[in-house]
Amino acid sequence: MNINMKLRFWILVSIVAISGFSQGMLLPLIAIIFEQDGVSSSMNGFHATGLYLGILIASPLMEAPLRRFGYKPIILIGGFTVASHLRYFHYGSRFGSGFC
Length: 100
Hints:
single chain
């Protein structure tokens, strides 16, 4: 394996680690916020289950866009989307609590 392939491998490993860390840290925070807002525990559980069901459903559908556009644009668009949504997470929690 040459140096370029090793670098790509570790970049992908880092991206997966950061994504897992953000999910692992965000789910307990959302659960605490929902509990403080009076959301039932079953609705809180549906929320946590929905995240992973969405990942499970979206994973097989990602192959075609990855082959068409490549890893780099998809990773950049996904990272930008996550960062922009996390920036407004606090403000959105005020609007979303009325739906539960």
